[in-house]
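Work Package 4 report. The design task specified in the project plan requires that, given a folded chain encoded as structure tokens, an amino acid be chosen for each position. We show below one input record used in the internal validation round.
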């Protein structure tokens, strides 16, 4: 048995209404679902009763970002999210023009942690932006 492909990433959010515009309007992902799930299947998977709103966004290439809001549990935002911390720190999107995309996210007053910079070997140029819940998204241009 082998893995076939990467399907999605799921992130719990505290404020769905702040996150949707970031993924849909700023990053430009296509919203493909907005569903409510509260059933035995999820209870079995989670090991406890949950009541989820799940909003799914699809990027070019088919990768899905799922935002989960559990109405039965309050979650708090992390105090910070740094690249050097343990756990999942970021995920990345490739763009045609990283500098124009940087200008785009800055025009929406998104927090970036660096301006676009080029790797030492010149193979890529990138920057990091935070979503409203402090999740880090890498935006990169790869020179082939």
């Amino acid at each position: 048995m082998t893995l076939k492909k990467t399907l999605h990433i799921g992130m719990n959010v505290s404020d769905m209404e702040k996150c949707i515009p970031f993924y849909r309007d700023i990053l430009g992902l296509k919203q493909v679902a907005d569903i409510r799930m509260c059933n035995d299947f999820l209870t079995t998977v989670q090991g406890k009763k949950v009541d989820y709103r799940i909003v799914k966004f699809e990027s070019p290439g088919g990768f899905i970002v799922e935002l989960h809001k559990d109405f039965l549990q309050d979650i708090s935002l992390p105090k910070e999210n740094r690249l050097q911390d343990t756990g999942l720190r970021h995920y990345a999107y490739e763009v045609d023009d990283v500098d124009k995309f940087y200008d785009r996210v800055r025009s929406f007053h998104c927090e970036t942690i660096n301006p676009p910079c080029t790797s030492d070997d010149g193979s890529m140029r990138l920057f990091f932006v935070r979503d409203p819940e402090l999740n880090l998204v890498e935006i990169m241009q790869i020179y082939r």
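The longest strand covers residues 30-37. Validation will be extended to a larger panel in the next phase.
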